[in-house]
Every structure is written in structure tokens, then in C-alpha cells.
């Protein structure tokens, strides 16, 4: 929810006052950054020191105001090669010390110019460490950013923040997904066809599959099981995406149809939560979520620990200490976060299906989990054999 006045990001714009107001009444004052105006969303923090362009264009951040914990942001500017989608999806952006001048051979414009051009309201000069500590203690919550010369009083701003919609109960995947199917061709020899249900897919995901000889048919979030199988897939993929998985009844029903047929299945992030629901597990909202590119996860099938990229505020409620019986056979937790024991992956033992809560495509890095795409290929090879 954003209203803004677009214009060139300049020293004049940066001199305008801005206020960040949390729904519990805590306020932070700073300067306008990007577009000038008003925006609302859920305040979350991202711990990545690089990859801000991928973060901004990740559809999973729809309706979220992202606080960057790294103090200096924007030093590499913005290029035309790294976006994960066609636009910036964050509802607002919070930084401490924005770069005055970008310096990178691929840079085409500054970050604040890109934010202003796309109408994204931000704030700079904020003590992001104090803000992050507050969110860790109190949890992710609704927030508003107000900038410009004519700011309302704090009581009015707080009232507007508290009227904004919450993330719990939000059904958002159809808002960010493609409206029409499209195909990402295999790179080199075509080996497999995959139907990818777009719940907020990042551009690097079908690219990682294409690198492995997979032709990817990206389908809208509203696609039916019949439409999934109309492309004659060797495997089915469910992507990442925004919102509360408790609202995603349609993707759950489609996934159950895939499980019934025994087609190799792979899910990432929101897709992991959809698999959890399809198997009969519940989901819940994390206090402040996992966001950043430095989260330690253990692959319990190998014992290996990976440094991984995350962006999720919800998680699957599945037992860590036992194999569960489901309508589709036995299932177990395959990956777990070593920071807080949150479920980070599921796998079926009697059918070719698995999922992870994090991002193995990780365009900005790290790439420890890229092997998961090879695991998906192995499932399809096994099914074909």
C-alpha cells in the first residue's frame, strides 16, 4: 500500500524529513530515501550484506517493509541483469547510510533513483541496529513510512499504521504471479519438462533448472491440475511466494493431485509450506522470520551444514524427532535451521517428493544448496527409468 510523488533522487529529496512508525508506537526519524510519500506494510529485517537488488525484486517481499541490517547500502548501484522479476516488490525500504555515489562497472543508476522511479518510499539515517533489536524482541509488525514537508502528527500516523492489513491471513500469491503461462527453454539439450506453479517465482529458479537441461513451463498460481498435466511434465515445481500459507487452499489441492499421481515434485519456500499442508501438517507465523543470506541449515539426510539464503515469515509445524504417516506415505523433516530448529525441508519416503524452506537458486549467494536442483533431476531420472 503505497502512495508517492516520483522524482529524481537528489540531495534535495534526501534532505526531506521522514518518519517510520511501528504499530506498537515506536518511532524512528530520518530522511526521505527513494520516492517521497507514504507506505505501509509488515516490518521485517534482512541480514544480507550483499544482494539488495535481488531482495528488492523478490516477489516474496510483497507488502513488506524491509530493514537492511548492513549499515551501508547502495554502493554497487542498480544494473539491468540482476533483478529477480520485472519490478521492485517491497512496500518500503529502510537503510542507515545510503551510498552517495554508486561504484560498479555494471551499475546503470543509483539505488535511490531506482526506488524513486518505481515509487518505492524509503527512509535513511535510521538506527537500523536499534530497529532490528526491537523487531527481534517484539516480533515483525505493521509499519508505516511517512516522508515530505507536510507530515501528520504522530497520533494520526500511528492510527493509519494500525488500520493497515496484517500479514497473517493474507492471500497474496495470485497478486505477484504471472497471469499468462510462459516457457523458459532448456540450455543445451532438452532432457526434461517441468511444470512450475508460480506463487511468486524468482527469475533465477527456472534458469537453474534450464542449466540442467529442463524446459520449464511457468504457470499462473491459479493453474489447475489439468493445466499442470497439459504440458506433459516429467516433474512439477511449486515456487516461493508471499503471504500466509494457511490461505493457499488452491495450491494445496493441486499439489495433492500431483502427489496422488506420483509425479516427481519439488517445492521451494512457499512451496515447502504447501507441501506441509498437503501432507496434513499445520503452519504458523514465526516471531520475526528468517531473511538474509547467512542462515545455517543442516541437511539431515547427509549431515552436511549449508549456509543458505532465506526469506520466510511462516513455517511448517512438523515433528523433528520421528517419521510421520501421511495420506501419501511416510514423511520426515529433511532439513532444519540450526539457529532455532525451524523446519527447513520435508521429504516423502514412499513417493518422489521433497521441498526446502530456503532458496537454493540464491542468485546473490551463497550457493551451498544448488545440489537440490540435481536432486530433483535425479528424481525425474529415476521415474523415467
What would a concise description of this structure say?
The chain is built from 11 helices and 21 strands. With 385 residues, it is α/β, with parallel strands linked by helices.
Mind explaining what this structure looks like?
With 385 residues, the chain is an alpha/beta fold. Helices cover 23% and strands 33% of the residues. The chain has eleven helices and 21 strands. Strands 11, 12, 13, 14, 15, 16, 17, 18, 19, 20 and 21 form an eleven-stranded mixed β-sheet that branches. Helix 9 (249-261) links the parallel strand 14 and strand 15. Helix 9 packs across helix 10 (270-278). The chain is globular and about 65 Å long. The N and C termini lie far apart (50 Å). The relative contact order is 0.13. The model is unreliable at 4-9 (pLDDT under 50).
Tell me the layout of helices and strands.
Elements lengths: L1 E4 L5 H4 L2 E6 L4 E8 L1 E11 L5 H5 L7 E5 L3 E2 L18 E3 L2 E2 L12 H7 L3 E4 L3 H11 L2 E7 L6 H10 L9 H4 L5 E3 L7 E6 L6 H7 L3 E6 L5 H5 L5 E4 L10 H13 L3 E4 L1 H9 L3 E18 L5 E13 L6 E3 L2 E9 L5 E6 L4 E4 L14 H14 L1
Parallel strand pairs: 4-5, 5-7, 6-8, 7-9, 12-13, 12-14, 14-15, 15-21
Antiparallel strand pairs: 1-4, 2-3, 2-10, 3-9, 4-10, 11-13, 16-17, 16-19, 18-19, 19-20, 20-21
